[in-house]
Amino acid sequence: MNRILLLFLVVLTFAACDTVDKPSKPVIAVSIVPQEYLVRSLIDTLAEVQVMVPPGASPATWEATPSEMKALADAIIYYKIGHIGFEKAWMPEIREQNPELTMIDLSTSLKIRRIEHRHNDHKHSGYDPHTWMSPANMESMARQIYGDMMRLFPEQKEMIRDNYAALLSEIKQSNFYARRMLANYEGRSFLVFHPSLGYFADDYGLEQLTIEFEGKEPSASYLKEIIDLAREKGIKTIFVQKEFDTRNAQIIAEELNAKVKIVEPLSANWPDAIKKLTDNLVASFNE
């Protein structure tokens, strides 16, 4: 009798451990925090959302930990942002961790811009991954996720449909605000440390000048060139992502007698990030 009781307790213990290990809701994985904004806006708490690059980390240099990789074993969908280095490096391991995982690249329906940068007198080029900084692109990504969530949660279609309408309204309001505020500054240039604002610049007729590219330090000759160009264009503000070292930006700011301002392309509150960026750009153009 004691043996039977002991066996019963062991079975209960293992069952409890299995319950703890298994998520109670579907798991949806995304690369960066702004994608979580889209998914959460649509489905609220219907699923757990796992963000691969945590707040405060840079997608350009981030590397997954074993625990983060293990967490992907329970995901049913992974939304790639597309053209980010860590995605290319880690996708084979992610696929090995979860062979049944559905991977969706949100950049496939977008027009991807190319960027060039000179480093030690050599030109480097690549694709700009910062697609989410364009409200038009966010609409397209929201549309893709909306269709997927309608299929994944058919019993919650009405709620998801209402959430989608509210999400589109929020994105469109952000676009309208930026377009109205920046209407008188078409053709103006701004300087940013990391080239994260190119899609935003293209949307509103601005020119993005950059210091860094794909984590590479700028050469001395390029720094001189960018300082001369910024001085010629009367730039008095350098924008820096909080995830990046600001030392080079501070050096250039001293040369130009300019300010350094923080931008947050990876903010969880995407509409607020777009508004703050717009306001900061307008202020910089009026200095």
Task: Fill in the keyword field for this structure.
Rossmann fold; four-stranded parallel β-sheet; single chain; globular; alpha/beta; 48% helix; 287 residues
Helix-strand layout with pairing:
Elements: H1 2-21, E1 27-30, H2 33-43, E2 48-51, H3 66-71, E3 75-80, H4 85-97, E4 102-105, E5 114-119, E6 122-127, H5 135-152, H6 157-182, E7 189-192, H7 198-203, E8 207-210, H8 220-232, E9 237-241, H9 247-256, E10 259-263, H10 270-285
Parallel strand pairs: 1-2, 1-3, 3-4, 7-8, 7-9, 9-10
Antiparallel strand pairs: 5-6
Helix pairs in contact: 2-5, 2-6, 5-6, 6-10
Report on the structure:
The structure is a single chain. It is globular and about 60 Å long. The strands form 3 sheets. A 4-stranded parallel β-sheet has the order 2-1-3-4, with helices on one face. The chain has 2 domains: 24-113 and 127-173, Nitrogenase molybdenum iron protein domain (Rossmann fold); 185-285, Rossmann fold. It is built from 10 helices and 10 strands. The chain has helices at residues 2-21, 33-43, 66-71, 85-97, 135-152, 157-182, 198-203, 220-232, 247-256, 270-285; strands at residues 27-30, 48-51, 75-80, 102-105, 114-119, 122-127, 189-192, 207-210, 237-241, 259-263. Helices cover 48% and strands 17% of the residues. It is α/β, with parallel strands linked by helices and 287 residues long. A hairpin with a 2-residue loop joins strand 5 (114-119) and strand 6. Helix 2 (33-43) packs across helix 5 and helix 5 packs antiparallel against helix 6 (157-182).
